[in-house]
Amino acid sequence: MAEPRIVIVGAGPAGVRAAETLVASGVRPIVIDEGGRDGGQIYRRQPEGFRRSYASLYGSEAGRAEDMHRSFDALRDRIDYRPETLAWGIWEKQLHLLQGSRTSAVDFDALIIASGATDRLMPVRGWNRAGVYSMGAAQIALKSQATAIGKRVVFMGSGPLLYLVAAQYSKAGAEVAAVLDTSPFHLRVKALPQLIARPDVLLKGLALTLKLRRGGIEIQTGITPVEIEGRPEIGVETIRFRTSKGKVRTIACDAVALGYHLRPEAQLADLARCEFRFDAQTRQFFPVKDADGRSSVAGVYLAGDGALTLGADAAEVAGRLAALAVLSDLGRQVAGVQVARLRRRLRIFERFRRGIAAAFPWPAGAAAALGEDTVVCRCENITAGELRAAVSDNGAVEINRAKAFSRVGMGRCQGRYCGHAAAEVIAACAGVPVEAVGRIRAQAPVKPLIIGAESDAEQAA
Amino acid sequence: MTSNESGRFRRLGEEGRSRLVFSIDGQPAEGCKGDSLLVAMLMQIRHLRSSEFGDGNRAGFCLMGACQDCWVWTDTGERLRACTTPLAAGMRIATKAPEQAWPSLA
Amino acid sequence: MKPMQADVIVIGGGLMGTAAAFFLRRRGRSVILLERGLVGQQASGVNFGNVRRQGRFLPQLPLANRSREIWGRLKELLGEDAEFLATGHIRVCYDPRQIGVIEAYAQKARDYGLDLELLNANSLKARFGFFGPEAIAGSYSPNDGHANPRLAAPAFGRAAARTGVAVFENTEIISIAKPGDDFQAIAADGRMFSAPIALVTAGAWGGALSRQFEEPVPIAVHGPQMAVTEPLPYRLKPVIGVSTAIPQEVVYLRQVERGNIVFGGGARGPAFADIRRAYAVPGHLGNQLRQIRRLVPALANMRVIRTWSGIESYLPDDIPVMGPSARVSGLYYAFGFCGHGFQLGPGVGDVMAELIDRGSTMTPIEPFHIKRFAVEAARSVSA
Ligand SMILES: Cc1cc2nc3c(=O)[nH]c(=O)nc-3n(C[C@H](O)[C@H](O)[C@H](O)COP(=O)(O)OP(=O)(O)OC[C@H]3O[C@@H](n4cnc5c(N)ncnc54)[C@H](O)[C@@H]3O)c2cc1C
Ligand SMILES: Cc1cc2nc3c(=O)[nH]c(=O)nc-3n(C[C@H](O)[C@H](O)[C@H](O)COP(=O)(O)OP(=O)(O)OC[C@H]3O[C@@H](n4cnc5c(N)ncnc54)[C@H](O)[C@@H]3O)c2cc1C
Ligand code: FES
Predict the structure, then answer these.
(1) Signal sequence span per UniProt (chain B) (predicted)?
(2) Could you tell me the sign of the dihedral formed by the alpha carbons of C283, C285, C288, C294, in that order?
(3) Do B105 and C303 touch (CB under 8 A)?
């Protein structure tokens, strides 16, 4: 049999471990990543010439980061690595790529999508102002550029990243004005039985909060965001919120990091026509996969946070499992014990994920309370009122229908940042469950594609 | 180094990199080798562009190439996604769409 | 179950069906509109949005003219304008041999009341400076334009409902017959609808219904491919298209007022009528981009942010099926619009309403009669 053509999208923890597993079996995969360097989100490498140590960059994860980068470096000449290459479309067994302004296509027998996640956002009045960033953005500014997103930063939202990034800022010498968590504290206690599935991570989380408090940083839980105030030309000036006790407070700041955990980058899976399922606990859709990462489409495999937000350690396990699934489906011998062990580990991560979701819930209810003039879709500047009009005047209940009428989700980001909130706004307005509203269908290109793009003759034959 | 009060971002280390000169809307600006264009610009000014739909200035949002909020222009009309474009010496950046100067043809 | 009764049942809630229902109601008929999914979700909701007359099959121009007149009155008729803009439409060519074709068309179109302005390379450059050097001539239709397909059919549907049409969405008609004086349409869930008159406006699925009356048509389905750019300052007002004999050179574009440039053309993708989906083919985008750069080079720096396709029905002679059935009295058809139906929609609705109401129409539609396929159908049956 000819050498199987295996393509991996993503050189984060999931993609790297998948590649490593394939290489160990004598296969040379193509590894595609739009980033210039490997590492993915969490183990993002800083630019050449930066000198911060692993310890200062990755904290408690320094060892893992170093191991990941070393593993990848060791793979370099045994894989076909294509950095700065975007996978923007899929047609049957062909993946369409963009590198600079050249397009090309590669044929595959098996495709492992390890595309990672982006922040999950719930709008708040004023979140379209300059100076409001996603939680991930705040972290990237620091990790990859040694900068803070502002001189005085408020961290608002929910989820573990809220505390982690605030602590990283504080440690790096940035001024953290406050940490505002929409999740009430008691949920954390309630979720302990699940969170204990990963005691080490739980302890790290507790230590973070403690460190922040010791540093004199104000932490508020159970808050309700009211508004990010400022001026159109200047951007953010203050943030207003209601405390758990119902008191309205204002804090001066010039930047806000905003985020409610993560959502998968599942466009490629969607374009490959993979099925999706609704997860009632986190109120979002995930692509369907089996325990090892097989999607509903033969030849397409899913691994890491791009399939299910289980975190970096789990992404490594999922990447290995997906590669083993590919090998086994190609008729190679795969060690059953190894698979069983990896699956067991993944189940632990899944329990922990449920705990996190329970402790830091997605604030679905906030959508119903968004003011009529609050922008929901930042790209197209569409307000909650305009979206609701598509529902109440034009009868749109399904999200793609509401998109067609209101333009919500029609902008450059393709609904990445407004899609989940828009679904909640529609559900609340129409009085239907959010799963009935559905999800925004992905449309190629996964990211904007230049008209000047010229196609390569490559067309791997 | 280039700690600029009028800028939005703040540097927290990695000082001492070599400097790169570029310009924003014709004004001279300075960044460091290894800066993304977004960071270099936001060390100098408070925004990258303004929203097409009138709700004010924008300064990027995700910093990871996902939100597409940070597109700026070069003086020759190219578009650059500032958060994923490394700063290069001599870049001439515009914060306004050059097509605004196109005639309106009906 | 007792069937629901009206004067007319209209099957298919695209632009044809909603417009026909709206105009039938204005003529005092009671109407039931039956739509399998949601109104205007298929071809009518995803097309390019061209409200173009020039370049059409000449005998179709009276219908297109009638439709154009309605486009200009949408606000008054429906209370909303579906973003219709009479920005003008311009067709250019690259091949000197095509100049003659354009000129001949302009000459003949005049007889149908469509005045086109011919432009040579110089006037093209002077007036529309954005064309690439290969564009050597063109013709300009000042009163054509474009509209928002996402809004048009739903606007007709809502206006129809407001004026008393019984609109049933999520109602798929699986069988239709005329057992006695009335047609009986049966929905997938068993509901029954009945009327002495039936109009089939089921787009790509029209053939499945006409077949139930033994009037099969050789319908083919394809997915024309569309794309849209990021928003730019609103500068390119007219709709632009290429006049050519070479299929891959076909490209057309329009800028919407918010600034995005919508474009389409070139190879069509597969459409799946059974699952009601058509997919944009990534491999088809490359040629479209090449053609866009050729047509308007200054767009080379812009970014495409989305591509899509839709299910359109085509007949071998590239003109629709429109008019009364050749076999069953009280039965009418308007489907199979071969990629040109958006512009025609309001006119088709108005003409079909007139035909049903009066028994005849002032607008000639004889070339579109389903009987042109009868011979072929008989042949294929006997073969
Ligand atoms: C901004 C951010 C910060 C985070 N910080 C932390 C943290 O501090 N601690 C923590 O435990 N977890 C963090 N997470 C979660 C963490 O990212 C994941 O658990 C882990 O990185 C998942 O690994 P992965 O391999 O699944 O995806 P990723 O590490 O995200 O890697 C995905 C890779 O795929 C590439 N890619 C995606 N789509 C395409 C495409 N279409 N074409 C080409 N390439 C593509 C991306 O460039 C990326 O390199 C963070 C997540 C985000 C989004
Ligand atoms: C991508 C694309 C671009 C195009 N661009 C242009 C353009 O620029 N200009 C132009 O003039 N034309 C254009 N067209 C063509 C134009 O869109 C169509 O000709 C026109 O919309 C057809 O309208 P319709 O109502 O006949 O069909 P449709 O809009 O498809 O409506 C038919 C309806 O019937 C319903 N239906 C079918 N079967 C049943 C059943 N058994 N029971 C109940 N309901 C049923 C369907 O659900 C559907 O809603 C384009 C088409 C496409 C796909
Ligand atoms: S800031 Fe989001 S793409 Fe650059």
Answers:
(1) none
(2) negative
(3) no
- B2 found inside a domain: no
B27 CB burial (10 A radius; 0-12, 13-18, 19+): exposed
Q: What distance in angstroms lies between residue C187's CA and the mean position of ligand 1's atoms? A: 48
How many angstroms separate the CA atoms of A422 and A122, rounded?
9
Which domains, and CATH codes, for chain A?
A: 6-116+265-356 (3.50.50.60), 119-261 (3.50.50.60), 365-437 (1.10.10.1100)
* Smallest CA separation from ligand 1 atom 41, residue: A87
Q: What percent of chain B has pLDDT over 70?
A: 94
CATH topology of domain C4-46+150-217+318-373: FAD/NAD(P)-binding domain (3.50.50)
C-beta C139 within 6 A of ligand 2: no
Mutate to test the pocket of ligand 1, among A57, A69, A115, A346 (most ligand atoms within 8 A of CB): A115
Q: Taking residues A127-135, what's their average pLDDT?
A: 98
Is the shortest distance between the CB of A424 and ligand 1 below 6 Å? no
The segments of chain C whose pLDDT lies below 70 read: 375-383
| Tokens coding A151 | 């001189």
Tokens of A419: 């899609």
**Widest CA span of chain C, in angstroms?**
70
Domain count, chain B: 1
**Chain A touched by C301 (CB under 8 Å):** yes
Q: Which helix (H) or strand (E) holds B61?
A: none
Question: Does A136 contact ligand 1 (Cβ within 6 A)?
Answer: yes
The model's confidence at residue A460, banded by pLDDT at 50, 70 and 90, is: very low
Could you identify the residue written with the tokens 């204990």? A196
ipTM > 0.90, yes or no: yes
Whether C258 sits inside 8 A of B53 (CB atoms) is yes
Q: Which residues of C touch B102 (CB under 8 A)?
A: 130, 233, 235, 298
Fold of the CATH domain C89-142+224-309:
D-Amino Acid Oxidase; Chain A, domain 2 (3.30.9)
Residues A246-273 have pLDDT tens digits of 999 999 999 999 999 999 999 999 999 9
